[in-house]
Amino acid sequence: MSKEFDLIIFGNGVAAFSAAVKASEVTSQGASIAMIGTGPLGGTCMNVGCAPSKYLLEASHQIYLPGHPKMRGLPSTKIEHDFSSIMEGLRSYVDHTRKTKFVDMLQNYPNVTVYDGLARFVDSRTVQITDQDGKVKDEITAPNVLIATGSHPTVPNIEGLMETGFLTSDSIWNIGSLPESIAIIGGGAIGLEIGQALLHFGSKVTIIEALDIILPQSEPEIGQALMLRLQQEGMNFYLGARVSSVGKESNGHKYIEFITHKGNEKIEVSEIIVATGRQPNTSNLNLEAAGVKTDGRGLIVTDARMKTTSSGIYAAGDCVSKTMFLETLAVRESIVAVGNMFGESAEINYMFAAWAVFTYPQVAGVGMTEKEFSKLKGSCSCRTSSLANTIYASITGETDGIIKITIDPETNKIVGMHIFAPNATDLIIEGAYSVRLGLTYDDIVASGRIFPSYSEGVKLGAQLFIRDVSKASCYVE
């Protein structure tokens, strides 16, 4: 006989854990919850995503930046490092944090039962738990189901790629030595973050990107500024490039052949990293049996309440059909889903979701770009401010930053903000509040700032709607 629960969660990552905590809180731990997943607790973000990548980036910045000071009188200082030891530290950090934030946390929720296995629908209320070979281990039922199975790296169909071998954002954390040279197929956030980190450690890094720009989700000025900064650091780029084949040289190195507007090109490297995106873990869930529809990419279709096409079944995280895939967004989606399951009323609004790229300087954005809002409304108004206009940037030497603000010209309300700056991940919160609360550029101008600070750049960007800030004192409001 099937064991009955109040909620079944497919997955054991951040969306799954957030859902389990939320359901426990709103029911005072009265809800019986089953969480089904394989692999380490914490999913992509904890084990192969946010946590290890930011650890690697921070270590690489501490090695690189002292050797490239921007202030007069500071000598270039070479920082000796042991890459193998750094990677051991990274893995140790991930293990420790997984234990404290996920494994140990479960002890506080005795109403949550964790199953090690794969979840598969029998019908919309019945779920089988199987092992990796498909053998049924258990069968459970619940009136509510949340699908939060995450995603895995996409591997493009490139001649010779599988035979040659490659790394992904899932497997790179196991390397022990630094490759002398690396080609990264993909110029999105994952490729750029890993690429700059390895560049700062001393690898020769080449980005091969199919589009003519990097970071297409951001404003083109910001993508161009980041690429210029990375080129100045020594990173090579091939944009508008289509990889045709991959193979091994007689010396043990690997080669990549690709086509650009210049014709056929070929480079030789020590290692290849594939960073062409991720795809959802939905193909083996037997969604058809539960009446859950997916889009053409295998992503689950939901409404604003995170409901799928089947009553009582919700979805959250990287398996959901949308355009933005973020750990923080996965958490929010799971909170919205569980709230609606247990009597609350909530909806997701992707317009308010801030995103970031943790290169140095960082890139962050929220809301619409100039192109997106113009396409929606036919026109918009925007201003682009250089971080060089701030006193603090002129002190630190970080003058190539950019802050771009887009407004609705009918209301003067902020509809988008995109930032390229050393601490863009902190500055963008002002943009997130502005978009969410419907603030105008006057509201930003009227807000106080710490002087001197990078945050002045946001205020100066807003002031551009009313004056030329290059001709005004830094104290003018």
TrEMBL record:
| Domain FAD/NAD(P)-binding: from-to ranges | 5-324
Question: What Gene Ontology biological process does one annotation of this record name?
Answer: detoxification of mercury ion
User: What are the GO MF terms of this UniProt record?
Assistant: flavin adenine dinucleotide binding; mercury (II) reductase (NADP+) activity; mercury ion binding; NAD(P)H dehydrogenase (quinone) activity; NADP binding
Looking at the record, the residues that make up the Pyridine nucleotide-disulphide oxidoreductase dimerisation domain are 354-459
Which keywords does this chain's UniProt record carry? FAD, Flavoprotein, Metal-binding
**Flavoprotein as UniProt keyword:** yes
Q: Name one Pfam family in it.
A: Pyr_redox_2
In terms of domain of life, where is this protein from?
A: Archaea
Instruction: Identify the NCBIfam families for this entry.
Output: MerA (TIGR02053)
What the record says about family reads: Belongs to the class-I pyridine nucleotide-disulfide oxidoreductase family.
Q: What is this protein called?
A: Heavy metal reductase
Tell me the organism.
Answer: Cuniculiplasma divulgatum
> According to the entry, what is the taxonomic lineage of the organism?
Archaea, Methanobacteriati, Thermoplasmatota, Thermoplasmata, Thermoplasmatales
